[in-house]
Write a structure and sequence with these properties.
The complex is a heterodimer of chains A (343) and B (255). Chain A is mostly helical. Chain A has 13 helices and no strands. Chain B has helices spanning 43-50, 73-79, 96-103, 112-116, 120-139, 155-168, 185-202, 213-219, 237-242, 244-251, and strands at 3-14, 17-28, 32-36, 58-63, 66-67, 81-83, 173-177, 205-209, 222-227, 230-235. The N and C termini of chain B lie far apart (45 Å). Classes of the chains: A mainly alpha (343), B alpha/beta (255).
Chain lengths: 343, 255
């Protein structure tokens, strides 16, 4: 309990510091417009990565249609704010309350679709979810292009923009918080137990179908939220953006960071969003670099950068200390062994 | 003495193969019954029938007088049937403590939102479950390993942890599938004491599959012998091991 309280205090302090830093950078003019949009994209990718990590990393089911849920959230939220702005508002600034409500409704609809898609696939043991979600994302894309009210193939235009960095960073932090708390609760434990051994989980009283669906639905919900943020940062939506490559990109965040580790997903999402921006000249080679990175990763550290390790302000310093203590001990041990052989 | 678990005329066929047929069993409170038989006799199949992994094609199972046919395994755990596995099935990469906590899940009420937003109810229940889990680990002398990954425990301790996890579900009947497999003589003896102790402390009925005759005759009050899916003997240990049918099955015919 003591450590938990300490963690909460430390985390709150660091969040406040982060916002002060953000504020200073924004008012100090250190953020160009381009970097502001990079930070928004980064937040979107972080939300996508942690939400997929719940399904792929924590539950252990591969899902290849995360962009599909993102698109549902994006279109729903965009249509809601568009409707609201057209009917009730004179300015082109979306009120914060409406924005958040639109995001949540977008998330809920994505979650509902997740339930319909996930339930039949998750009733079975095995990797059926990968196939089902792969097909689902493509179907959604085609449907969006076919329908009229989504703007069809031309895309949905004139979405009111919402690019307030404070709000978007705050939402991202809340999502990360919720993911960590979910991971360390009875629901999180139950979901992990299914990854570890589905049969044993079932015979420990875990309703595996319920928890599998729960994880997938929550995952779809947050993908929908990310979609809503994306819609309002871009101002225009086309169904093509949410193609198979987008789903794969999200999966890469998770696998590269270490599936099962939220820390890993966050770090990988940040790295893979910022790096292409810094190395813009090589933007064409992005997917190539991703693939090479993945191959190298699979060879040298198949569990991803972080494996299943989670960063925490309380435990990580201890872990680092312990790691170095062990290393020096090992070195000492090696020296002693040398002495022994000599004598 | 009240009857807890009753199987009557239980049978299952896989295609044309009758894996188990005409299986009868009655377990009463504080019973300690052994289920033995040569390899492939259908012992584990019986376990899978009793725990809802397989649905019987004939016969009936009753738990405290109510039929439990057609129920899923996790539902049966809730009703009070817990089991362990022949080849240990722990959640290897998570801590010993969490392994036990998972088995408490169906007794917990915290909702998803309460967990995610860390409402007061979450802390309260989490604390009480932690205490319960540690108490249970203490019974098995495992509390010092509580933060170890379950997969890093020595073999004997893993067996114990699996039993502890099964007990955490608060069962009325405990089914142990070869608890002494891979254990040496001393470990087996220690296990015998543990099993007896569990039965007395938790007041449950225990049914165990075992190959180690010393263990079976040492602690079981009744023994059922299976061969080719059929019961060939049932009774007190001394009767059973002197039964000519049993001897024939285990040692072969005279000719």
């Amino acid at each position: 309990m003591n450590d938990t309280k300490k963690a909460y205090i430390l985390n709150t302090i660091s969040v406040i510091l982060l916002f002060i830093l953000l504020h200073l950078m924004l008012t100090g003019g250190m953020f160009t417009r381009r970097w502001q949009s990079v930070v928004i994209l980064l937040c979107i990718n972080v939300i996508l990565a942690v939400s997929l990590n719940l399904t792929t990393g924590v539950l252990g089911q591969i899902a290849l249609g995360h962009a599909g849920f993102m698109s549902i959230g994006a279109y729903t939220a965009a249509l809601i704010t568009k409707k609201y702005m057209a009917d009730f508002s004179a300015t082109d600034q979306v009120p914060l309350g409406i924005y958040v409500i639109a995001l949540i409704i977008g998330g809920l609809i994505a979650a509902f679709v997740g339930l319909i898609v996930g339930l039949p696939a998750l009733r079975l043991r095995g990797d059926y979810l990968a196939i089902v979600t792969l097909g689902f994302a493509e179907i959604i894309r085609v449907i969006i292009e076919y329908l009229d009210f989504t703007g069809g193939a031309q895309g949905l235009r004139g979405i009111n923009k919402m690019t307030n960095l404070y709000v978007i960073v705050a939402i991202t932090l809340v999502v990360i918080f919720l993911m960590f708390t979910l991971g360390r609760s009875r629901q999180g434990r139950a979901i992990i137990s299914i990854r570890e051994d589905e049969i044993a989980a079932e015979s420990s009283g875990i309703n595996t179908i319920y928890y599998k669906t729960l994880a997938f639905v929550v995952s779809a919900f947050f993908a929908g939220i990310a979609g809503g943020i994306y819609a309002h940062s871009m101002g225009i939506l086309t169904a093509k953006t949410f193609g198979f490559m987008k789903s794969v990109e999200i999966l890469i965040f998770v696998v590269l960071g270490g599936s099962g580790s939220f820390t890993g997903s966050i770090v990988a999402a940040i790295l893979l969003t910022v790096l292409p921006e810094v190395l813009r000249e090589f933007a064409d080679y992005r997917m190539l670099v991703y693939s090479i990175l993945l191959v190298v990763m699979m060879i040298f550290k198949p569990s991803g950068i972080f494996g299943r390790y989670e960063f925490s302000l309380v435990n990580t310093p201890k872990d680092i200390k312990r790691y170095f203590a062990k290393r020096t001990q090992k070195k000492k041990g090696a020296v002693q062994d040398d002495n022994n052989t000599e004598s | 003495m009240t009857t807890i678990l009753k199987a009557s005329d239980l049978g299952i066929s896989f295609g044309g193969l009758k894996a188990v047929s005409g299986f009868n069993l009655t377990l009463e409170t504080n019973d300690l019954v052994g289920l033995i038989g040569p390899n492939g006799a259908g012992k584990t199949t019986v376990f899978n029938l009793l725990t809802g992994v397989y649905q019987p094609t004939e016969g009936a199972i009753e738990l405290e007088g109510h039929s439990i046919m057609g129920k899923t395994p996790h539902h049966l755990v809730k009703l009070g049937i817990a089991r362990t596995f022949q080849n240990i099935r722990l959640f290897k990469e998570i801590t010993v403590l969490d392994n036990v906590k998972i088995a408490f899940d169906h007794q917990m009420k915290t909702s998803l939102l309460s967990s995610m937003f860390r409402l007061p109810g979450f802390w309260k229940e989490e604390k009480s479950i932690e205490t319960k889990a540690i108490e249970l680990l203490k019974v098995f002398n495992l509390e010092k390993y509580r933060y170890y990954s379950a997969g890093n425990l020595p073999y004997g301790q893993q067996r114990k942890l699996e039993i502890a996890r099964a007990l955490a579900t608060d069962p009325k009947v405990l089914l142990l599938d070869e608890p002494a497999a891979g254990m040496n003589h001393t470990e087996t003896h220690e296990l015998m004491d543990t099993i007896r102790f569990i039965r007395d402390r938790f007041n449950i009925a225990i049914l165990l599959i075992e190959h180690d005759m010393q263990l079976v005759t040492g602690i079981c009050e009744k023994i059922t012998v299976l061969d080719y899916g059929k019961i060939i003997a049932h009774g007190l240990p001394q009767e059973v091991i002197n039964n000519p049918n049993v001897i024939r099955v285990y040692l072969g015919d005279d000719d």
